[in-house]
Design a protein that fits this description.
four-stranded antiparallel sheet, alpha+beta, seven-stranded antiparallel sheet, Jelly Rolls
Length: 280
Amino acid sequence: MSTALDFGAALAAAKREARKQRAANPPPPPTAAVAVPPPLPAAPPTIRYAAEFVDEREARALATALRRLDGWAPLPRRRLLSVGGTPHPDGAWTEPLPPCLRALARRAAAFFPDGRLPDQALVNEYVEGSGIASHADGPLYEPCAVIVSLESSARLDFFTDGDERVASVLLRPRSVVAFADAAYLSLKHGIAAARADTVDDRVCNGAAAGCAVGDVVARAPSRLSVTFRRLKRVARRLDGVDASLLHDEDRVELERRRRWWAKSIADDALPSPPASPRGE
C-alpha cells in the first residue's frame, strides 16, 4: 500500500512541477514578428513559401541540437525523429516539444489557419541523394503542414492521386514551405531520389528561391527537415511527466502506441539515385 501511495505522490508532484514550470515561463504570442507570405501564384491554392525563415546562426545551432536528441529511428537512406507525442487513431498521447524546437514552433504557428501552436513535429535527416516517396499525411492531423529545411536544397513535388506531378517547390536551406486545406487534402507530396534537382516550368517559387527554368541545383551531403503539424484528436496529455513515472499499464499502452506509430511511418525507401550528379 505504501509503495502505491509513494508512486502516486511522486506522479502528482511531477505533474505539479510541470504545471509550475509552464506557468513561470509562458510562451510569447505565437505570431509575433512573423510575416506570412501570400500563396504562391502559380501553385495550387494554399501553398506558401518564404526564404531565410531562420538565420544561419540559428540554423547551425538547431541542426546540432536536433542531432543530439534521443529517439532517432533508422530508415533506409534516412533517419527519423518524432517529437511532441504519439499520434494514434484512438487519439494521441502528447508530450511537450523539446526545448530546441519551441521557438521555431511559435513562429511556425503563424502559418496555421488559427495561429495555434503546433503540437507535433517530425524531423528527417536525409543522406545525399535520398528522397521520400510521394504520400499524404493522413487523417490524424489537422489539414496543415509547415516544413523548415536545413543544410541542403531539395525539390518538393506535389502529385494528384493519379501520380501526375502538378507543382513543385524548390526548398532552399533555412526556408519554410506551408500547405493546407486543398493542397493538404487533395494532393500527395514527395522528394525524388536524386543528387541534384532540375528547375522546370512546374517549379512555382523560382523568384523566391533565386532560380530559373533550366537550372540544376545540387544537393548537399545531408539535409534536415522539420515538419510541424497539429494533432486532430488528443486522448491524453502527459504534461512533461517522464514515462518512467507512469503506471505499468500506462507504460505498456504508451509503448504499444509508439510501436504502431513507428511502423506507420517506416515507409519503403526510394531507389538509390543515379550516378550522374545531375539527377532527374
